[in-house]
Design a protein that fits this description.
By secondary structure, the chain is α/β, with parallel strands linked by helices. It has a single domain, classed as putative 2-phosphosulfolactate phosphatase (Alpha-Beta Complex), CATH 3.90.1560.10. 43% of the residues lie in helices and 17% in strands. It contains eleven helices and ten strands. Strand 4, helix 3 and strand 5 form a beta-alpha-beta unit. Helix 6 (154-170) packs across helix 7, helix 8 (194-200) runs antiparallel to helix 10 (213-220) and helix 9 crosses helix 10. Bound molecules: D-malate (MLT). D-malate binds at residues 26, 28-30, 71, 74, 84, 103-106, 146, 207. Residues 26, 28-30, 71, 74, 84, 103-106, 146, 207 line the site of D-malate.
């Protein structure tokens, strides 16, 4: 099994992930919000890469069961019901709903990897569960860090490093790319105290300045959920082994048909 890490995804096009197994990471805060929403009973999360598209697919499209959430410059967007704080995604608000999510980097990174065979959503909250699952899956993995506006960010790189480190505990034969090795070292140097690391990161500081200090506590929670969210056909749902097997079988059937 090979693991590759991308500290940002702005330098390649949407076709790059075609047919691959990928993992999206945006610790502050999109992937933490997605895990929280699904843990609290959201039916699905639909990540989008523009506010216009978010508006278009919300409303009555899904029988009035959609909620618009997300942020611009960390703040709630006019016309949206929720911002991008995991604390807002309570069971009372999200249970049974389709959450349409637009965020500056995270939702766009997920949409960018839309052609992945399967794409998992990871943050510190569900990292051990994702590591375990990927090792059982035993396929090459592309870790897609959302980064910040096309640039590297510390928290996503360290989360990637921690994910690889956990996977190496299951399987010490894993092959790791140079970016993967760099993220492992970053995790070793700065990842021991996750909350402290988040508070010292550039985006963490901005969130504190904008009144979201408590979000960092939620985002630093390590392994507090076993949820494995996966994105396929435009929406993120809780992993269900049976559904995923069907998807894999369908892919296999269409590949076989192409070969004939
Ligand atoms: C993003 O997608 O850039 C983030 O989730 C921003 C934020 O902290 O809300």
């Amino acid at each position: 099994m090979k693991i590759n890490v991308h500290f940002t995804n702005h330098h390649f096009d949407d076709m790059y992930f075609t047919g691959k197994t990928s993992v999206a990471i945006d610790v502050l805060r999109a992937t933490t919000v997605i895990v929280t929403a699904l843990v609290n009973g959201a039916r699905e999360v639909i990540p989008v890469n523009s506010v216009d598209f978010a508006m278009k697919i919300s409303g009555n499209t899904f029988g009035g069961q959609t909620i618009l959430g997300g942020e611009r410059n960390t703040k709630m967007i006019e016309g949206f019901t929720l911002g991008n704080s995991p604390l807002e995604y309570t069971p009372e608000i999200v249970a049974g709903k389709s959450v349409v999510l637009y965020t500056t980097n995270g939702s766009k990174a997920i949409v960018k990897a839309k052609f992945s065979e399967i794409q998992y959503i990871c943050c510190f909250n569900n990292l051990p569960a994702i590591a375990n699952h990927l090792c059982l899956l035993n396929k090459d993995v592309e870790i897609n860090c959302a980064g910040t506006n096309g640039n590297f960010n510390m928290e996503d790189a360290i989360c990637a490093g921690r994910l690889i480190n956990e996977m190496m505990n299951f399987d010490n034969t894993i092959e790791i790319s140079d970016e993967g090795k760099a993220s492992l070292n970053l995790n070793k140097s700065f990842g021991k105290n996750i909350l402290k690391m988040l508070r010292n990161s550039e985006h963490g500081k901005l969130l504190i300045e904008n009144g979201f200090a408590d979000d960092l506590k939620i985002c630093s929670g390590y392994g507090i959920s076993n949820l494995i969210p996966y994105y396929v056909s435009g929406s993120i749902k809780k992993y269900d082994a049976e559904i995923v097997n069907n998807i894999n079988n369908e892919t296999k059937i269409s590949e076989d048909a192409e070969e004939k």
